[in-house]
Amino acid sequence: MAYIDENKINEIRNSVNIVDVVKDYVPLTSKGKNFFGVCPFHEDHAPSMSVSSDKQIYRCFSCGAAGNVFTFVQNYENVSFLEAVAIVARKAGINFEYTAEKKDNINKNLVVYYNILKDASKYFQNYLNTKDGEEALKYLKSRNFSNDIIKEFEFGLSPKNNMLYSFLNKKEYKDADIEKTSLISLEKYTHDVFNDRIMIPIHDLEGNVLGFTGRIYKDSNNPKYINSKESEIFKKGKILFNFHRAKNHVRNAHELIIVEGNMDALKMYASGFKNVIALMGTALTSDQVDAIKKLRCKVILMMDNDSAGKLGMYQNGNILVKSGIIPEIVLLSGAKDPDEYLNKYGVEKFENLIKNPLSFLNYKLEYFKENLNLDDVTDLSKYIKLVINDLKNETDKILIEVTLKKLAKDYNLDYSNLASNFAGEEKEQKIEKNPDEKTVALKIDEAVANIILGMISNGKYIKLFIKQLGFLPEKWQRNIVSEIRYYYEQNNTINIADFITYLSDKVEMQSIIIDIVSKYGDLDINDELFSEYIKAEKKMLLNKEIKEIKTKIKNEKDVNKKIELTEELTKLKKEVESNGSN
Q: Among 55, 61, 468, 507, which residue has the least CB neighbours within 10 Å?
């Protein structure tokens, strides 16, 4: 276990009952020996999540979510494993401290940068509430930001005349460290980067201040907005504005709205649409998509109503689709952005827009028409090719057929011709794919799954496995068995919940175990059942070996070797018979 003592983690897990912890998040009802509730990890209406007090695990029969108390808290709170352990420890009243190392081994200097940014944010907030901040505060009120929103979003004001630098200097921060945060510049002369601007803190996904957006609030020839520069600490590709607040509201709304600008997100939040985040001026990155996927909710894209915004919806929509999220689209007809739409049409009309989004496919069908005259045969041909080329990324065959039929009907085209063109495009794409780029999905048969489940449920089944079988055919299966045996040898005991914890830094292996628990976790393994699964797997292995020997006999030309193989085949067949009919 990385960073902290595994025994301490097991002590924390054993100090709580998973039922009591899950009850803090989801109402549970007792049915038999288990508890049931609505699963928070997908849009669930009837209780489909089972929580076992005996096994200390949870599993959803619908979406497959499963694990122990730590994985539940980790996925519900969208936090790291160690943060989940800390949350459970607090619930148990156990003192638990750890040093949270970042993925890229953040050095000690970054702790200083965090402190500088935190102190600067507090300074800006205090300065906004001085006499010098009256005009800025009046501007914010004119934009319909209440005192509560101003406080919640930690609005501030950057003063003139390098007052921030003087403040940070008095706190004995080094110039070089302050410069790293993009708050001051040491080029030519020392000066504050943000000067007389309303300051909006930008947080990471956990809520730590990483940088700022500075906005002018009175007539000026200066740029309306300036943001913190990309740095060791401020990386746009890892940030989603307002994510740390929105994630809590997404659980109730079951959907996430993505907009372009910080002010759009702020205006929507202040108007009651709190499940909103904003991009940081870039296309969605893999880090951002991973964070969004953890929310397990519907995603709505609502970019600006201009050519760049429409392109952004198309590009970001495709990025989401590739990750397994099918977004929906809201078009802001009659306004350039959400801020303007709310000002012009009000909350009720805005809410109706969100309730009636376009499917991403329908959006693309309209988007491809941009700058094309479909009365012109050349442009119409371009349009059809664009649609067909886009459809090759679609996996839903019914949707493909419906779309092609719609094209045929709308533009008086021959469906069979369109279908054959699509088939040709699809074939061409398959040829172009690199044969080395393969996604391998592990297929877990019932016997293997339950053998593994038995072994992680009770140490005696590890011994039975070694005695009666001792071998599994696939490499990944053997790796899991190796980890199980190592864990048992080290601890002289084993259970599902603790073994899941043990695998927290072996993500792929942990996901396989969770998958097995999800599918078969309600099965109570006993000696007879375990032996039956061992027999079934042994028979499968013997039949596989028989098949291989038959092939060798067929291809063998040496008579003596053929006789040896035949004798070996006879022995294996007898072994299959003695193994029973299962």
A: 507
Query: Are residue 55 and residue 120 in the same domain, yes or no?
Result: no
Would you state the structure tokens that stand for residue 393, as one six-digit string? 């990324």
Contacts 24+ apart (CB under 8 A), 467-474: 468/531, 468/534, 468/538, 469/534, 469/537, 469/538, 471/541, 472/448, 472/537, 473/541, 473/544, 474/442
Q: How confident is the model at residue 138 (pLDDT cuts 50, 70, 90)?
A: very high
Neighbours of 307 (CB within 10 A): 10
pLDDT tens for 469-484 read 888 888 888 889 999 9
- Considering the domain boundaries, does residue 98 fall inside one? no
Averaged over 93-106, what is the pLDDT? 60
Asked which of 365, 386, 419 is the last residue of a domain, the reply is: 365
Q: Which domain holds residue 32?
A: 6-92
pLDDT tens for each residue of 360-393: 999 999 999 988 999 999 999 999 999 998 888 7
Question: Tokens for 574?
Answer: 């007898």
- If phi > 0 it is left, if psi is from -120 to 50 it is alpha, else beta; for residue 232 that is alpha
Residue 551 has pLDDT above 90, yes or no: no
330 and 402 inside one domain: no
242 and 278 share one domain? yes
Q: What percent of the chain has pLDDT over 70?
A: 92
pTM equals 0.62
Looking at the structure, tell me whether residues 357 and 375 fall in a common domain: no
Alpha carbon distance 137, 203 (integer Å):
22
Tell me if 158 is assigned to some domain: yes
**CA-to-CA distance for 308 and 303, rounded, in angstroms?**
9
- CA angle 39-40-45, nearest 5°? 55
Distance, in Å, from the CA atom of 246 to the CA atom of 294, rounded to the nearest integer, reads: 13
Radius of gyration, CA atoms only, the chain:
30
Residue 97, domain member (yes or no)? no
For the ranges 53-67, 326-340, 500-514, the one whose mean pLDDT is highest: 326-340
Question: 349 with 338: CB under 8 angstroms?
Answer: no
The total of other beta-carbon atoms located within 10 Å of residue 324's CB is 8
Phi then psi for residue 70, to 5 deg, are -70, -45
CA distance 43 to 63: 9
* Cα 77 to Cα 71: distance, rounded to the nearest angstrom: 10
Residue ending a domain, among 234, 256, 280, is 234
Same domain, residue pair 450 and 574: yes
Burial status of residue 316 (CB atoms within 10 A of its CB: 0-12, 13-18, 19 or more): buried
Claim to verify: residue 346 and residue 394 sit in the same structural domain:
no
- The number of CA neighbours under 13 Å toward the Cβ of 558 is 5
- 47-66: average pLDDT: 90
Mean pLDDT of the chain: 86
Model pLDDT, residue 508: 81
